[in-house]
Specification:
The complex is a heterodimer of chains A (388) and B (471). With 388 residues, chain A is an alpha/beta fold. Chain A contains 10 helices and 12 strands. Chain A is flat and about 95 Å long. Classes of the chains: A alpha/beta (388), B alpha+beta (471).
Chain lengths: 388, 471
């Protein structure tokens, strides 16, 4: 007896919709939980928002008791010259963990998904209920923006003729004419001036508010890779936050040891530096650039400084003075102190010294590990809300 | 699919069935559902089941399959058969006629295997579809029940899924009841009758501790928790039962993967060879067949390994002359005996001889740091070790054996488990997460005795967190 053949039952066509939705919700939740780690890997500028990034997810693995890596496996297809001890595969370097990240989990433990940078950043700020930054009236720059539609006119340039609309006008007219004179049916109806319809546009003056973000980092000998990595995470979030609120955001990277220099993003994060620290040099350089290029009357200025808190004692009075000046020039000036595992617990680090800075738009946070970056960032902006 | 197309499939099906009967295969009635590739992706996510309860892991599985398919990493399976009576299988209407004919021939091989292999003895295939439907209905009702609700149901399912395969592996060995275990404990403790009792002192009798729960180490974690955690709600107990039943249903398929895929491939090959295919279909068949049973270098392709072993079983009796399955010769007989009595582990142990190990190019490898290193090749000294490693890794053999030894550890209702260590340590992050889920079901602390860094160790999961200490 032969088999029964039947077409698929239609009701089962999208049976997995609910389970897929629930899975996506969990992926999203997991991304939110790991957002601090994820953004730490991204460049601050120069990436377009629709770029797809790979996101590691830890939350939605399915767990059960399994054997570790110490077991033997069997494969097929060995050639005759395969011998004991031959290396047949090697894990790529990338699974080794990122610099500064503890490698407590094997690389294979990641479940990855793709997401655009924009989505990622939207999610990042979605839950936060972050405050709107206070914008300066004066710093709105008037610019001629593209033209905007504003209805139709009977006269205009030939290129702006709306042919569809014009034809409709003619048909309407001819129909009303034919209803009045029934014998006019077969006659050709030419276009008349009254049929013509031109698109009308006006130019708009748009007020743009511009901002500049100063990323100042201590690149003295004591700022190792881990600290730079933490600083990068912090700067990334700050930049993204500011960038979401202004039309145009400039970023200035300043690195300093005893002297300060303006550098590219790449140099900022990757170039090893050495030497001692004069924090004031970084602040003074920023002030210089503000006076030269970003007058506070025209720009919203944000400055953030990351350091391990280690400054030459002799520079401390100058540092406080410069910090005060920066506060005067900026919408907000923030200081993040990076001390992985309380590495250098000198009694008088900058975060203590900066308690002398009294300006209301000054913030400081302490970051001890990668898990602190996100909470520190939230606390940072939360504080502004309080102060505002 | 057009009527003409369907009629064509029916004609080929009739001819296939004729050969199936002539070759001595015994199948359940067969039903084919004609679906498109979206339906197929859906069926894959649910192991082919027409109905299944809702859980996000099926959504995850769907997304993964779809991503792989969309990116061309993997195609769709050309066959999916459910162990049910009547047997259910799927044909894709976008597939060519040749591929659908091959699929049908392959499906009959699985169908025969499900019906005749002893491992499937108690899977009750006549109730498969209804049972999965009932499971789905029950769990949906708990989701809608305010006393349970979607969040709690999901949490229970998550935990149950994590433990589902920690259960008896050989379903043909009957589960002993508590009273049988009691009797056994007493029997063991009772000294045998001693004819010379008058001559020497009586052997002292030790009373077994009959209050202990469980009396014997218990491999069925979900059932044990269901029966011995009095704080579980009825709906939770039912979910544990459902998840256990489904694992129970799928385990025979895991335990016979190589045999079963090999068997279906062996028979589709025989059937297709005698079907009198026109030249173009024959060519397409050869291409598809070679695609399916090609070796996966560095891994194991069960279709390939299984196919080669079944071929070798026949050849061992009959030599490599032309195969004629209409004559029931010794080769044919050997095939049918093995298909009835073996499971992958015994099958490989019995039939994977030195020549086959070498012909298949089997070798053993392990991770050493970041490298994957060959540890054994199939030479004179190594081939048995290679075979034994393969035997140990098939089916649920790759999953660690973990049993409950005490439900009232130190008198505080802590759950004590033991990992039957056989040279392979547990992966710690997984063990930790799984124990946390186990703790949510048991409601008290959970301990697991295992081996870490080659030293005995105890993992402890409590309210305060997780710890691993050497003992």
């Amino acid at each position: 007896m032969g088999a029964i053949f039947r077409p698929a039952s239609r009701e089962s066509s999208d049976r997995s919709a609910g389970d897929r939705l629930r899975h996506r919700q969990k992926v999203r939740r997991s991304i939110m939980d790991n957002i601090g780690d994820i953004v730490a890997d991204e460049s601050i500028i120069g990436r377009s928002g629709d770029q797809v990034v790979k996101v590691p997810i830890r939350g939605i693995k399915e767990y059960r008791f399994v054997h570790g890596e110490n077991h033997q496996s069997v494969g097929e297809g060995a050639s005759d010259d395969l011998a004991e001890g031959d290396v047949i595969a090697r894990k790529p370097d990338s699974t080794e963990g990122k610099p500064g990240q503890a490698g407590e989990e094997p690389g294979v433990d990641y479940y990855e998904t793709d997401i655009t940078l924009d989505e990622l950043i939207d999610m990042m700020f979605e839950d936060l209920n972050l405050p709107d930054l206070e914008r300066k009236e004066m710093s709105s720059i008037e610019s001629l923006r593209n033209t905007k539609r504003k209805g139709y006119r009977k006269v205009g340039l030939r290129v702006k003729l709306d042919r569809r609309r014009t034809a409709r006008n003619k048909i309407r007219r001819s129909l009303s004419a034919s209803s009045r004179a029934t014998d006019a049916g077969g006659e050709r109806m030419p276009f008349r001036a009254e049929d013509l319809s031109y698109r009308h546009r006006t130019t708009e003056i748009h007020k743009e508010s511009n901002a500049v973000v100063f990323c100042i980092m201590d690149t003295s000998g004591s700022m190792g890779t881990t600290k730079k990595y933490l600083a990068r995470s912090f700067f990334f979030m700050l930049y993204q936050f500011v960038a979401r609120r202004y039309e145009k955001v400039d970023v200035i990277f300043l690195s300093h040891d005893i002297d300060a220099r303006e550098v590219t993003e790449d140099e900022f994060f990757h170039k090893g530096e050495s030497g001692g620290t004069f924090v004031s040099s970084g602040y003074n350089k920023a002030l210089e650039i503000i006076v030269d290029r970003y007058h506070p009357d025209l720009w919203n200025v944000y400055a953030f400084h990351c350091s391990d808190g280690d400054n030459f004692a002799s520079d401390n009075p100058d540092a406080i003075k410069s910090a005060q000046k920066l506060c005067d020039a900026c919408n907000m000036f923030g200081y993040g102190e990076i001390k992985p595992q309380r590495a250098s617990a000198y009694g008088n680090s900058l975060i203590d010294i900066f308690k002398a800075v009294t300006a209301s738009n000054f913030r400081s946070v302490l970051i001890e590990g990668k898990e602190d970056v996100w909470p520190a960032f939230k606390a940072f902006l939360g504080a502004e809300e309080e102060a505002a | 699919m057009s009527h003409a197309g369907l009629d064509e499939l029916r004609e080929w099906d009739d001819r296939i069935v004729e050969l199936v009967d002539a070759f001595g295969l015994e199948c359940y009635a067969q039903e084919f559902e004609i679906c498109d590739h979206n339906d197929m992706l859906g069926y894959m996510a649910y192991s082919g089941m027409p109905s299944q309860y809702p859980h996000w892991s099926f959504g995850k599985s769907f997304e993964k399959q779809k991503t792989l398919y969309d990116h061309g990493v993997s195609g769709l399976p050309y066959e999916m058969v459910i162990n049910s009576d009547p047997s259910l299988a799927y044909l894709m209407r976008d597939n060519s006629l040749g591929l659908n004919i091959l699929t049908m021939a392959h499906v009959y091989g699985h169908n025969d295997f499900f019906r005749n292999n002893s491992t499937f003895g108690d899977t009750e295939p006549q109730h498969t579809v209804a049972r999965f439907k009932s499971h789905a209905e029950r769990i949906r009702s708990y989701v809608e029940d305010p006393a349970a609700g979607p969040t709690a149901v999901e949490a229970t399912l998550d935990a149950a899924h994590a433990l589902a395969f920690n259960c008896r592996r050989n379903m043909s060995i009957r589960k002993t009841t508590r009273s049988e275990q009691l009797q056994r404990a007493i029997d063991i403790a009772t000294p045998p009758a001693d004819r010379n009792a008058s001559i020497h002192a009586p052997r002292c009798k030790e009373d077994p501790d009959l209050s202990r729960i469980p009396l014997e180490p218990e491999p069925d974690l979900l059932l044990f928790i269901r029966d011995y955690n009095p704080y579980l709600a009825e709906w939770q107990k039912d979910i544990l039962t459902i998840v256990h039943e489904q694992a129970h249903y799928f385990i025979p398929q895991m335990e016979t993967k190589i045999m079963n895929e090999g068997w279906a491939s062996y028979w589709h090959y025989q059937i297709m060879s005698e079907l009198g295919l026109p030249e173009d279909l024959r060519l397409e068949f050869m291409i598809n067949h070679n695609q399916v049973i090609r070796p996966h270098p560095g891994g194991i392709n069960p279709y390939h390994v299984g196919f080669r072993i079944w071929q070798a079983i026949y050849e061992r009796e009959e030599g490599d002359g032309p195969i004629d399955h209409r004559r029931r010769n010794a080769g044919h007989q050997s095939l049918f005996t093995a298909r009835e009595t073996d499971r992958d582990s015994s099958f490989l142990r019995r039939f994977l001889d030195r020549d086959l190990v070498r012909d298949l190019g089997l070798f053993e490898f392990a991770e050493k740091g970041r490298d994957t290193v060959v540890t054994r090749v199939a030479d004179e000294q190594g081939w048995e070790s290679v075979r034994d490693s393969l035997v140990a890794s098939v089916g649920t053999g790759s999953l660690p054996v973990i049993e409950i030894t005490d439900a009232d550890f130190q008198g505080s209702r802590q759950l004590q488990l033991v990992h039957r260590y056989q040279g392979q340590e547990l992966e710690l992050p997984h063990a930790r997460a799984t124990m946390e889920l186990l703790r949510t079901l048991w409601g008290r602390d959970v301990l697991l005795d295992t081996v870490l860094n080659q030293k005995p160790a105890r993992l402890h999961c409590s309210e305060d967190g997780f710890s691993a200490e050497s003992t």
